[in-house]
Amino acid sequence: QQQVKQSPQSLIVQKGGIPIINCAYENTAFDYFPWYQQFPGKGPALLIAIRPDVSEKKEGRFTISFNKSAKQFSLHIMDSQPGDSATYFCAAFAGGTSYGKLTFGQGTILTVHP
Amino acid sequence: DGGITQSPKYLFRKEGQNVTLSCEQNLNHDAMYWYRQDPGQGLRLIYYSQIVNDFQKGDIAEGYSVSREKKESFPLTVTSAQKNPTAFYLCASRRDADTGELFFGEGSRLTVL
Question: Is A10's Cβ below 8 Å from some Cβ in B?
Fold first, then answer.
């Protein structure tokens, strides 16, 4: 019930394409859904996050779409660039019930070709 | 600059040896975490600590130990009991009590020879 399932495992797009990464969760106690971006040899960094009372959040070229009834959320990267090539993790957090634990998806390796 | 400092960045150890990974933060965050990263398995929680002198086991705590004697420091010991210790280890801290916004260090890569 604490799992977050992420797909696809890897994704290759051309520059300018719109990669989409999907995540699904089971635990309805989750109330904060961040996405992290990780470059090789570095630690992950927060990219964008959303709460379940909002259906969409946009920051620059990155958009989260959230479907509360389906318990799914996704990351869209508009006008993707080679510099966006990285591993992306979705995550879910339930502050009141899990004593501060953040549950991560398995990660998606994104490659953007020039 | 504020942040999370992990050391060493690379570490090699022989089988049967214990090794301690350092994690220091100057962000004044209460909560700190240790994650293990393996290809295709995402980030798995080893231990976490909400306050000084208190810590909780995560999902894969077997073969690891931690201490939290100071707010700024959360070292992780990989013991000889850990059967497959070769991995990338990430330390993080959390700013707010009601969000999952973690700040990560740059990681320590441990290789067992």
Answer: no
